[in-house]
Design goal:
Layout lengths: L1 E4 L2 E4 L4 E7 L14 H13 L4 E5 L12 H18 L5 E4 L3 H9 L4 E4 L9 H8 L3 E4 L17 H19 L4 E4 L8 H9 L12 E2 L5 H4 L10 H13 L4 E4 L2 H14 L1
Parallel strand pairs: 3-4, 3-10, 4-5, 5-6, 6-7, 7-8, 9-10
Antiparallel strand pairs: 1-2
Helix pairs in contact: 1-2, 2-3, 3-4, 8-9
Length: 273
């Protein structure tokens, strides 16, 4: 379980942490929290010092009902932050959370290392070809529709079978174009009810059939705070519990807002193995 990031092989046999850094004013948990270059640098430094292997930058909120952002605006938001971070932390591995091929291409050309696509190439017909040409690790997520329609599409006869079929088709399409490093993300919270999220988590280990790295992103999501009748701000304990379960189910990367706690989960789980 290795991926090639800018010429360096990253070993995922020991799980890694991806820290979330939103360059958006409206993300569900930390939208608008970081306003200046120093804010972004301080948070990046904090996450890297706590053990993050990757920093995931997103300039277009994918929360349900999020406002539309033009491609130009997304690029204008993300590129300056990439430049600021890499000037201070040149070895940082930046992941770009986008479903747009042009945004991904410009980000990678400016020093980012990974593409994180919530649509697995289904929202931009050029994405898979672009990822193949760039030869960077490609995270593909399960989702139906788009962020504005997904919650109305949470109907499944058998969610495990449907997610498996989805990934078999998307992995095949990616492989046919020459994408080498593929990472799977089950897409918790995307076109899934609370009950479906937990059913999927319960059976996440079925994705091992693909023999590909598995990314789990459940940090402070509604499947936690709605179940516990609390808020995203008070959902860290629930996040830690589910991250621990995700590791038991075979997660290779934990995508989180709180790096220190996720690294501690990994350390404890590795001690038990």
């Amino acid at each position: 379980m290795t991926i090639n990031c800018k010429g360096n092989l990253i070993d995922l046999s020991t799980p890694k942490v991806m820290g979330i850094l939103n360059v958006t004013p409206n993300s569900f948990y930390d939208g608008g929290k970081y306003k200046s270059d120093s804010d972004f640098l301080n948070q990046t430094e904090k996450m890297l010092s706590e053990g993050a292997a990757f920093i995931d930058l997103g300039a277009y909120s994918s929360r349900p009902g999020a406002e539309f952002v033009t491609e130009e605006e997304e690029i204008n938001r993300i590129l300056p932050i990439i430049a600021v971070i890499l000037k201070r932390f040149p070895k940082a591995l930046l992941s770009i959370d986008t479903f747009r091929a042009q945004v991904a291409q410009k980000a990678i050309e400016n020093g980012a290392a990974v593409i994180n696509d919530i649509s697995a190439g289904l929202l931009d017909k050029n994405m898979l070809e672009t990822a193949a040409q760039l030869q960077v690790p490609y995270i593909m997520m399960h989702m139906k529709g788009n962020p504005n329609t997904m919650q109305s599409l949470a109907q499944y006869e058998n969610i495990t079978k449907e997610v498996t079929y989805y990934f078999s088709e998307r992995v095949s399409a990616a492989r046919a174009l020459g994408i080498n490093d593929i990472i799977l993300d089950p897409g918790f919270g995307f076109a899934k009810t609370l009950e479906q999220n937990y059913e999927l988590l319960r059976r996440t280990d079925f994705l091992s059939v693909f023999e590909l790295p598995l990314l789990i992103g459940i940090s402070r999501k509604s499947m936690i705070y709605k179940l516990l009748e609390t808020t995203p701000q008070n959902a860290l304990n629930g996040t830690t519990v589910l991250n621990t379960i995700a590791l038991q189910k075979g997660a290779h990367i934990l995508r989180v807002h709180d790096v220190k706690e996720a690294v501690e989960c990994i350390t404890i789980m590795e001690q038990l193995c």
